[in-house]
């Protein structure tokens, strides 16, 4: 745990120090120090300082926040629907957010909101998608796992169809590119302004889930087992749905739909520390943060100065790593 | 602690699954619930371990309404082995047993470890502590689930067909373990001979209603078994132990 925290710190520093513009490490640390202590830098360093403090650092921090959020939500959603294949996007929330984001990118919706239009529209449509999935998935027995997955998956196809129609109908050159970037997820739009709300939401969601680590264990065993242990499964699942939707919506609003992290990090963490949510929830956000900071770094270094979508890197690096870990044996997910 | 099911009725989608059921389990008694498939056994037990809320009637622990209690408070008094077997997450045996501590507040991890270690020792699963629960045999799994129930430190234990899918030695083993716990027990059982041998009292449920109750050999009469289970039963005396066993045939088709 402390090791992982240290690794995250090192990753953040690397995320700030490395990039297309070659800035020496001494300068990087000088700028960081100036930024942290409110010091000043000579006017000749202004451009380099801006790159370090206003572009790379918020991007690395936002990457850590988004990675932590996706990993945490992935853990919670897998327990909520008791399915090892679930991820933060299985409930259709990210597809809903994508509709809103592309309405802004491609159709110029909410132009009056200026630079906030994309995030606001993405979050608003994520909420709308959440409400729709909730309303459809409800039954007299509460939100049953299979109903949630089926509803989320079915509605996700619908949202994706809407997005596709928009892309085909309206995309021209750069707009099509940024729509594509959004579909695959990117931290390219990171600014300090985007960090606080995302960080607070992810931290609050994580803290809420940590306090429910034991009920999550029970829920993972089954609804009847939960009831016999004094957990109210229907109520817990309802709360989980709302909390995971809020975190997913916020994360997707600032970074698009970055795949793989929310699906695989929970499994990697379980391979390493076991299935007990008390440990999984302690480790998963750190692991997700480290993974995404490095994936984002690679996405801007590999073809610099061009950028790859970060989702491509998480997949290219993450898939072999995950398969190796899984092959190492001893891990039974989804039964034996 | 005594368990009383008082006039419990359960409805789902307008159908009555269980109707006006009364069952009394004395403190420390082992009471069996038998009945054909679909007779309402599991539904009734779900009401007892609070996975379902009855439409009418009450379940009482020493007179207190179980469904009016806080969920965790109820789980400190009553533990259950439901029939479900989810297999999505690879918990270790120790982790599964530790779940039994969930209802208890203000506890220390040292206390948790001690209680769990005692529960695992009593059920003979201590050597499995680090193993994956999913990889265990059926008999080992049931022992681990009993250990989890004991880790709850309850006074009442509810079991839904605890001997399902077990070979005969493990069936006897599980029931002996439950019997030896000294808890107040209500168990749904499929095997009538097994039920007769282990239970102090039997309740027969059919179509959601209790149709007979009493000491096993008063209840399991050929006429009742023909009516409820549709079988012809022959009581025979075991040549060595002298206990009465039932042999079964299908009833001849009515002409």
UniProtKB/TrEMBL annotation, chain B:
SMART domains membership:
AAA (SM00382)
User: What domain of life does the UniProt record list for this protein's source?
Assistant: Bacteria
Q: Does the keyword Isomerase apply?
A: no
Q: Looking at the keywords, is Acyltransferase present?
A: no
Q: What positions does the domain ABC transporter occupy?
A: 3-232
GO molecular function of the protein, one example?
Answer: ATP binding
UniProt keyword annotations, A-Z: ATP-binding, Nucleotide-binding
Alphabetized InterPro entries for the sequence: AAA+_ATPase, ABC_transporter-like_ATP-bd, ABC_transporter-like_CS, P-loop_NTPase
PROSITE patterns per record: ABC_TRANSPORTER_1, ABC_TRANSPORTER_2
Name of this chain's protein: ABC transporter ATP-binding protein
- Originating organism: Streptomyces hebeiensis
Q: Name the lineage.
A: Bacteria, Bacillati, Actinomycetota, Actinomycetes, Kitasatosporales
């Amino acid at each position: 745990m402390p090791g992982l925290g240290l690794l995250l710190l090192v990753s953040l520093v690397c995320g700030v120090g490395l990039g297309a513009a070659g800035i020496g490490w001494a300068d990087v640390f000088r700028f960081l120090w100036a930024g942290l202590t409110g010091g000043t830098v000579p006017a000749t360093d202004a451009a380099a300082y801006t790159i370090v403090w206003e572009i790379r650092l918020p991007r690395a921090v936002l990457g850590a926040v988004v990675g932590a959020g996706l990993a945490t939500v992935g853990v919670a959603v897998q327990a909520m629907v008791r399915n090892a294949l679930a991820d933060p996007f299985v409930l259709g929330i990210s597809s809903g957010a994508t509709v809103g984001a592309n309405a802004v990118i491609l159709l110029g919706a909410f132009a009056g909101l200026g630079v906030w239009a994309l995030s606001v529209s993405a979050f608003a449509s994520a909420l709308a998608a959440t409400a729709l999935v909730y309303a459809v998935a409800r039954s007299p027995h509460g939100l049953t796992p299979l109903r949630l997955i089926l509803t989320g998956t079915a509605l996700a196809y619908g949202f994706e169809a809407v997005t596709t129609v928009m892309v085909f109908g309206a995309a021209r050159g750069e707009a099509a590119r940024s729509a594509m970037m959004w579909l695959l997820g990117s931290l390219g739009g990171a600014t300090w302004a985007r960090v606080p709300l995302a960080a607070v939401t992810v931290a609050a969601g994580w803290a809420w889930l940590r306090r429910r680590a034991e009920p999550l264990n029970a829920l993972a065993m089954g609804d009847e087992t939960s009831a016999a242990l004094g957990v109210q499964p229907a109520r817990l699942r309802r709360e989980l749905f709302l909390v995971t939707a809020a975190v997913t919506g916020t994360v997707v609003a600032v970074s698009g739909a970055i795949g793989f992290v929310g699906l695989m990090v929970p499994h990697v963490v379980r391979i390493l520390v076991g299935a007990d949510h008390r440990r999984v929830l302690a480790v998963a956000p750190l692991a997700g943060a480290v993974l995404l900071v490095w994936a984002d770094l690679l996405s801007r270094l590999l073809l610099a100065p061009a950028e790859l979508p970060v989702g491509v890197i998480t997949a290219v690096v993450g898939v072999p790593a995950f398969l190796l870990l899984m092959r190492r044996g001893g891990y039974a997910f989804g039964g034996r | 602690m005594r368990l009383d099911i008082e006039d419990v009725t359960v409805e789902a989608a307008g159908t009555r699954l269980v109707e006006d059921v009364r069952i009394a389990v004395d403190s420390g008694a082992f009471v069996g619930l038998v009945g054909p498939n679909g007779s309402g056994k599991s539904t009734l037990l779900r009401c007892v371990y609070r996975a379902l809320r009855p439409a009418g009637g009450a379940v009482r622990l020493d007179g207190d309404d179980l469904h009016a209690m806080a969920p965790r408070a109820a789980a400190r008094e009553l533990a259950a082995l439901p029939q479900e077997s989810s297999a999505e997450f690879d918990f270790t045996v120790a982790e599964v047993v530790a779940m039994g501590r969930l209802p208890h507040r203000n506890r220390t991890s040292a206390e948790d470890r001690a209680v769990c270690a005692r529960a695992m020792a009593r059920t003979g699963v201590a050597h499995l502590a680090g193993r994956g629960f999913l990889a265990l045999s059926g008999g080992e799994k049931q022992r681990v689930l009993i250990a989890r129930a004991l880790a709850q430190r309850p006074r009442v234990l509810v079991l839904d067909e605890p001997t399902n899918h077990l070979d005969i030695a493990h069936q006897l083993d599980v029931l002996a373990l439950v019997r030896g716990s000294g808890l107040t027990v209500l168990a749904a059982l499929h095997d009538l001979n097994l039920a007769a041998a282990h239970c102090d009292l039997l309740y027969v449920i059919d179509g959601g209603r209790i149709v007979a109750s009493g000491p096993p050999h008063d209840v399991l009469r050929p006429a009742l078994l023909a009516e409820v289970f549709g079988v012809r039963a022959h009581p025979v005396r075991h040549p060595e132990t002298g206990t009465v066993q039932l042999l079964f045939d299908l009833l001849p088709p009515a002409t």
